[in-house]
From TrEMBL:
Name of the protein in its database record: NADAR family protein
Catalytic reactions on record: 2,5-diamino-6-hydroxy-4-(5-phosphoribosylamino)-pyrimidine + H2O = 2,5,6-triamino-4-hydroxypyrimidine + D-ribose 5-phosphate; 5-amino-6-(5-phospho-D-ribosylamino)uracil + H2O = 5,6-diaminouracil + D-ribose 5-phosphate
InterPro entries xrefs: NADAR, YbiA-like_sf
TM region(s), chain numbering: none
Entries under SUPFAM superfamilies matching the protein: YbiA-like
NADAR domain location: 17-162
Lineage of the species this protein comes from: Bacteria, Pseudomonadati, Pseudomonadota, Alphaproteobacteria, Sphingomonadales
Organism: Sphingomonas cavernae
Pfam families found in the cross-reference section: NADAR
Signal sequence region: none
């Protein structure tokens, strides 16, 4: 993905989201109602997971971010520690975001896939007042400008969902150094359905229960 290119979007042609309560607000990482489980930890939003991934070497900071009730607060709580983000953060953050979106999909398969597919083949744009990197910013009533990296990752995920959904049911760990959550290496993520099959095969008693941190 060429990240640096600024794109212009015409509002009438796109699916855009800003507030999580809007029709396509579920596409936002801030959207509630799309919980995730990683290493047995229940995480409220993909935003909290993404922000926690900045700090694999600081499990206490990760814990604080993940235990926040609101995604916006999780993001705010990470701000004082940003200077201590993993040193390669700028190089890996798009990969990490892509992985977080896939985890969101695996754990919210029906709801998130239906939402993504309902956008058809229209461009998806995070409409942002101040972030022209992950989103695009209004120039006037008809136009948004920005790199729209999040929107483009969502379009990429939508295309894979249209072409080969089963390939999205499990997610290999990212091949980056120190891909850790609360001190443990993040393993392959499997859909709850695949986990149940694996549990039945291993003659276990049933799916694990998860509580929020
Ligand atoms: N501050 C803020 N408010 C919102 O309503 C937003 N949707 C965002 N954008 C999201 O923030 C994440 C990126 O965080 P970093 O700036 O890289 O720390 C990403 O999920 C954006 O979609 N920000």
């Amino acid at each position: 993905m060429s990240e640096t290119q600024i794109r212009t979007y015409h509002t009438k042609d796109v699916v855009r989201f800003r507030k999580t309560t809007e029709e396509f607000g579920g596409l936002s990482n801030m959207a509630p109602g799309f919980p995730i489980v990683v290493l047995g930890h229940r995480i409220r939003t993909s935003e909290a997971l993404y922000q926690a991934c900045r700090f694999p070497h600081l499990p206490e900071v990760q814990k604080m971010i993940l235990s926040e009730g609101s995604p916006m607060t999780a993001k705010m709580r990470s701000k004082p520690f940003r200077k201590d983000s993993r040193p390669d953060w700028d190089d890996v953050r798009v990969k990490v975001m892509k992985w977080c979106l896939r985890v969101k999909l695996v754990y919210n398969w029906r709801k998130f896939s239906e939402l993504l597919l309902s956008t058809g083949d229209r461009p998806i744009v995070e409409d942002s007042r101040k972030d022209g990197y992950w989103g695009a910013m209004p120039q006037d009533a008809d136009t948004l400008n920005g790199q729209n990296v999040l929107g483009r990752l969502l379009m990429d995920l939508r295309r894979k969902l249209q072409e080969d959904p089963e390939a999205l049911r499990s997610i290999p760990p990212l091949q980056i150094r120190n891909f850790l959550l609360l001190g443990e290496p993040i393993p392959m993520i499997m859909s709850p359905r695949q986990q149940e099959v694996a549990l039945v095969r291993s003659d276990d008693e049933g799916p694990a229960q998860h509580a929020f941190l």
